[in-house]
Amino acid sequence: MVNSGGGRGTVEACLVLGIACLLALSGVQCDLLHPHRRLASEAVFDITKFEAVADGNTDNAIALIRAWKAACNSIGAAKLLIPRGQFVAGEVLFTGPCTANKPITIEIQGDLLAYDDPSAYTGGAWIMLEKVDGVVLKGGGTINGRGQQFWKYGKSKDGPPLPVSFVFQTVNNARMSNLNFVDSMGFHIKVTDSNNTDIRNINIRAPGKSPNTDGIHLSSAINVNITDSIIGTGDDCVSIGHGTYNILVARIICGPGHGLSVGSLGKRPTETSLKGLTIINCTLVGTTNGARIKTYHASPRIQATHIYFQDIVMEKVKNPIVIDQHYDSKRRPEQSSVKLSDIHFRNIRGSTISKIPVKLNCSSIFPCEGVELANINLIPFGPIGPLKSTCSSAKFFVKGKLNPPAPTACA
Ligand SMILES: *[C@@H]1O[C@H](CO)[C@@H](O)[C@H](O)[C@H]1NC(C)=O
Ligand SMILES: *[C@@H]1O[C@H](CO)[C@@H](O)[C@H](O)[C@H]1NC(C)=O
Ligand SMILES: *[C@@H]1O[C@H](CO)[C@@H](O)[C@H](O)[C@H]1NC(C)=O
Ligand SMILES: *[C@@H]1O[C@H](CO)[C@@H](O)[C@H](O)[C@H]1NC(C)=O
């Protein structure tokens, strides 16, 4: 069950000890009297030692949960290992808090395949990590939601809940890198009620026609970085929901899909405000939207402020720059009470397939304020004629050159 590592573990342990001593010098308490705990190498909890079988068929959910519990409840450094092979699993809940050293590691080398029967999922998640402080997820493996069975339900409200492939719920100090996600049932990754999350070098792939397969969705999450990833799905590549603070999205290649979106905000009465989002150095290819903010009609009174869309390249994008505060306006006639302010669209260039690539359509009861349009250069892809910008209920200002020109008026 527990493999002891070789010399490398000892080197790492020495480094840890060294850092511990530095911390001691700087006044932080140091466990120098019990160095054996620090010197013990990482314990590996391999799911195949917990009766998981890589036959591409058996439901290994119980084995995964048992291996996690052993890792989480161990003493010292611990790693849950999903080795090479095809492991099918139904609903999996990895719950903390853990006694193992922080951070605990989850290494996915093989393929995790969702159990192929929609009735096996009772909640909103396939794999959920919950109440854990300090976790590293890595390994180069693939998390395959096999969502085809769910996509036929489309946006219908009567279908089963659409399980998210991987949910971070009340998880602090998480790092996820070098993993592949394909064909989720619902979203691919969701981070919620969490602080300090770093997601990088992730590859997410689902068909452009698969509904609700957002790449990464955030809500009630603070201090999140999402970087250096390639995302192509049937919905938003990254969507930033309510209750988010200090978010960086950088160096993402997005497409196909619905683009990089703020929202939808204001659907439910309990939603809270969004503050501090930078989306920078991204490329969108063939998406329906580029830089988008969308809010519902008849929303609670919240704010979304301090938002930067900067240095973004668009290729054949339908709506490169769009604020739409009129979501679901037919069923919810009352205007949106989401106040948008301090919104920046800077250095956005490339090609579009729409005659109106810049649309600012804000709430008439809470107009947008402080919208910056700076250095925008969008050219038509194909013979679609001259381009223009439109605007409604927004106070905006212009810097540098704008192509198409800024809206002439904004009632
Ligand atoms: C969020 O996490 C950071 C880093 O661990 C920590 O410094 C900060 O206090 C946390 N914030 C909250 C509100 O918990
Ligand atoms: C995000 O990146 C910035 C630097 O760009 C860094 O200061 C910050 O600590 C990072 N936050 C997380 C959650 O990794
Ligand atoms: C964005 O790209 C510019 C130019 O390459 C670079 O200077 C800057 O550090 C990048 N920022 C991020 C957060 O990727
Ligand atoms: C704003 O959206 C409303 C509702 O969809 C639509 O009727 C109106 O024409 C739009 N205005 C602009 C300027 O795009």
Describe the structure.
This protein folds into two domains: 140 residues, 3 Solenoid (Pectate Lyase C-like), CATH 2.160.20; 176 residues, Single-stranded right-handed beta-helix, Pectin lyase-like (Pectate Lyase C-like), CATH 2.160.20.10. Helices cover 10% and strands 50% of the residues. The chain has four helices and 23 strands. The chain has a 23-stranded parallel β-sheet that branches. The protein is elongated and about 70 Å long. The N terminus is likely disordered. Bound molecules: 2-acetamido-2-deoxy-beta-D-glucopyranose (4 copies). The site of one 2-acetamido-2-deoxy-beta-D-glucopyranose has 6 residues, from strand 20 and strand 22. It is found in: Secreted, Cell wall. It comes from Sesamum alatum. One of its GO terms (biological process) is cell wall organization. Its main location: secreted.
